[in-house]
């Protein structure tokens, strides 16, 4: 029997009720998300395609301890270095995404030094974990096809005040918009 979104949500609920440590949560969630992304049909078809030719974010499940979303990256889409203010686990359902991890050193004012720690191309089935202290990254779809991912976060990012950095280290506020389906 295929591992479904409902199975995944039930397991997330059980894990996030039992655990509060971000490292423990992501360690337990990552293999389950890897199992889920093996089955693209686990995501309803309307949440696997980019609306109107732009990047899309859809809420798949909202709970007090976590959220599950579908994210579609169009060819060339990118997100500059940014933080999340929570733990997260990201799984690639289709295609691939390039993730660059950073360490940010505050230098005062609105500028920081970004140290590139790694650049990884995550293919179909790959999972990446984000924990506070190691959750600043940039994303880029360098391919000619849409990339579909499932993102799981310990908080709802919509409206959450976060931070982003340009390549030269200039900090700018980041507030994620609403999801396209709610």
How would you characterize the overall build of this protein?
- This protein is an alpha+beta fold.
- The chain is 16% helix and 41% strand.
- The chain has 2 helices and 11 strands; from the N terminus they run H-H-E-E-E-E-E-E-E-E-E-E-E.
- The strands form 2 sheets. A 6-stranded antiparallel β-sheet has the order 6-5-8-3-10-11, with no helix packed on it. Strands 1-2-9-4-7 form a 5-stranded antiparallel β-sheet, covered by helices on one side.
- Helix 1 runs antiparallel to helix 2.
- The mean pLDDT is 91.
Write the layout of secondary structure elements.
Layout: H1 5-18, H2 22-37, E1 56-62, E2 67-73, E3 78-82, E4 88-94, E5 96-106, E6 112-123, E7 127-130, E8 137-140, E9 147-153, E10 161-165, E11 171-175
Antiparallel strand pairs: 1-2, 2-9, 3-8, 3-10, 4-7, 4-9, 5-6, 5-8, 10-11
Concise overview:
By secondary structure, the protein is of the alpha+beta class. Helix content is 16%, strand content 41%.
Described by strand count, sense and barrel closure, the largest sheet is: 6 strands, antiparallel
* Classification by helices and strands: alpha+beta
- Classify the helix fraction into a percent range: 10-25%
Q: Average pLDDT, to the nearest integer?
A: 91
Reading the helices and strands in chain order gives: HHEEEEEEEEEEE
The value of Rg in angstroms is: 16 Å
Helical run tally: 2
């Amino acid at each position: 029997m295929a591992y479904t979104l409902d199975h995944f949500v039930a397991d997330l609920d059980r894990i996030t009720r039992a655990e509060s440590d971000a490292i423990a949560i992501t360690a337990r969630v990552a293999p389950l998300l890897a199992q889920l992304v093996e089955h693209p049909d686990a995501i309803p078809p309307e949440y696997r395609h980019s609306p109107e030719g732009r990047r899309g974010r859809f809420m798949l499940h909202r709970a007090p301890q976590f959220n599950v979303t579908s994210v579609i990256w169009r060819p060339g889409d990118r997100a500059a270095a940014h933080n999340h203010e929570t733990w997260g686990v990201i799984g690639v359902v289709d295609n691939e995404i390039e993730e660059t991890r950073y360490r940010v050193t505050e230098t005062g004012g609105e500028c920081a030094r970004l140290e590139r720690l790694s650049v990884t191309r995550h293919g179909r089935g790959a999972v990446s974990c984000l924990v506070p202290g190691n959750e600043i990254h940039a994303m880029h779809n360098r391919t000619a096809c849409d990339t579909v991912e499932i993102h799981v976060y310990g908080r709802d990012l919509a409206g959450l005040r976060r931070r982003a950095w340009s390549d030269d280290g200039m900090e700018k506020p980041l507030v994620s918009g609403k999801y396209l389906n709610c």
